[in-house]
Structure formats: C-alpha cells, structure tokens
Amino acid sequence: MRLTFFCPTNRRPVGGIKVIYRLAQLCDELLGESGEASVLHPNQPWVHYDWFESRPKLSKRFFLPRWVGKPSFSDIGNAFSPERDIVVLPEIWVRKYGVQLAQRKIPFVILVQGGYMMAKGAKSDLDSSFAASKLIWSVSDNASACIKQAFPFASHKIRRLSLHVDSNKFRPAPQKDNLITYMPRKLPQHIQLLNFFTAAHLPGNWKLQPIDGLDEDGVASLLSKSKVFLSMSYLEGLGLPPIEAALAGNLVLGYTGEGGKEYWHRPLFHEIPHGDLLAFAQKTIELLPLTATLNDASIVTAREELAAKFSAEANYMSVKKFLEELISD
Fold it and tell me: Does the predicted TM-score (pTM) go above 0.70?
C-alpha cells in the first residue's frame, strides 16, 4: 500500500505542514514492510522543508495542469491506482482533488486541521467528496464539531488525531529573560495596535520580541527564554504555537482561535476575547508580575499535564489505531 500525503507549500515555517511531515514519517515507520507513506507537493518535486525535525519520504509525481477559472486546478490523471494507493487530502484541497479522486475510485482520507478552512469551493463538490472519503482525520474537538455541522452525513467517519508537541525541545531555559514573544505573521493589524496600546505602560526592562522566519529549533530557543507569549490564533483547528510556548515556560495570553479552547486553562493560559485589544494590552501589563510564579508547583504540574496530552506516545497510539482501521477496511 502507498499512503500519499498531499501537502501545500509555503515560504515560511507553518504548523500545518509540520503536522503533515510528522504524520507521513510516523505512518511510514508504522507501515513497515506492508507499505510506505510519503509526502507529495504536487508538481513541485524539488520542494522539501528542513524547518522541522521530521524527514518523511517525498513522492515526485506530476499532474496535468488545467485552468478552470481561479484558482488553477490540476488533473491527477493516472498518477494513482485504486488497488494500491490511498491519498491523505488536506481540507483546503478537497475542492481541488476530492471529486477527481472519487471519480477515479482512488481511496482517500480527508485530514482536517482547520474546520474553518473547509468552506472554499462549490458545496456540491465538497459534499460529494466528504461522502466519498473513507475516513476523516480531525485534529481537535472544534474541528470535529465543524465537520459535523457542515457535513452531518459524514459524522460517523470522523476519527480523532492526537497531535504531538515535543516537550523535550520546547522547555524552559534555566535562566529566562524579560521577553514577551509573539508571531507577527497572523493578524498584523492586531499586533500593530497591541504594540501601540502597550508601549506607554511597558516597563523599561521588558521587551516585545517577534518570532519570525526561524526554524523549529530557533523558535524553541526563543520561547524557552521568554516569559509571556501573546497568542494571535485566528479560527484555528488547533494552534500549536500557544502549546509550544506554554511548554517552554511561558504564560500564554490571547486568542484561543476556537480550537485552542480544549486546552486553554489557567494557570498557563489566559483568554482574551477576539478583537478586544484594549483588554489585551491591559492584561499583558497585568500579567508581568505573575511571571515570578513560573516555577510554582501549580504551574509546573500544569505544564506536565499539557505535555502528557500532546505526548509522542499519545500521538503514536492515535496514528497506529487509525492506520489499523484504514488498512483493515
């Protein structure tokens, strides 16, 4: 069996690609001699990312380009065999490839990392694709709820994936700095206004530090030194940066992105309603004295519980169970 993970490209390190790379590598290890798993960047065989630790096998296949309005679509042609292949299709590409795979009777799974990213495309195409899928892999309670709401007829196909965040990599440094970190890629206007409203009140010995353009090791290093992380998650299936920041010894303040609600609990996480920038700025300043408690027993225990929820073992078992069902079906 060949299990092929379709994967988009991006100029910057993004969590969605990191999840796909890790899943493909783990699936390949679990399949062993019974098959293989690989990542496919359609029509871009030269693409590979070294931002992350994962080094999955890469599949190099070309599709036939065809232009139908905007965006461009590509014809998978005879690149896959119904008897040999199973495709893992990200939710953002259901509109591009779901109907094609169904028409060619190629078995496929839909991987939903963001429930709010499923809406693009004709609803009839999306409905037929979700109906034709073998299973639906969901990364969070929120993503599962979105699938059930939009495609109730496919609810029985949903299987929950436990994601992994490496608590050995994302851990507090022995000595922390007075840093408030954030990722400026999302919601740049919110970041600009938050900086504006915070500036007059930020103590001189504290610094706002963006995290931008770094690989996974660089992100982990900076998070390990900071004390507060500002979350700008926006309609996310399950935002990874807030989890990474909390495991690295930060108090996390900001938006849950909806998907984060399942782990957004005090004392590690402090929620701000989306768009309430005045409250965001005020709470940022109020949170600074609380960083003196980062080594308190309650904080350490909360970090340990978070690490267990997103452990390698939990991830391994959920993927193993999914693969067993997929192969036996």
Answer: yes
Is there a domain that residue 173 lies in?
no
| Residue range of the domain that includes 38 | 2-164+312-328
DSSP 8-state assignment for residue 86? E
- Going residue by residue through the chain, which has 329 residues, state the pLDDT in tens, using 9 for 90 and above: 999 999 988 877 677 888 999 999 999 999 998 999 999 988 777 777 777 777 788 887 767 665 544 445 688 888 899 999 999 999 999 998 999 999 999 999 999 999 999 998 999 999 999 999 999 999 999 999 999 999 999 999 999 999 999 999 999 999 999 999 999 888 999 999 999 999 999 999 999 999 998 888 999 999 999 999 999 999 988 999 999 999 999 999 999 999 999 999 999 999 999 999 999 999 999 999 999 999 999 999 999 999 999 999 999 999 999 999 998 87
Would 234 be classed as within a structural domain? yes
In the chain, how many domains are there?
2
Task: For residue 6, give the nearest of 14, 17, 15 by alpha carbon.
Answer: 17
Strand partners of residue 6: 40
Which residue, among 241, 235, 239, has the nearest Cα to 274 in the 3D structure?
A: 235
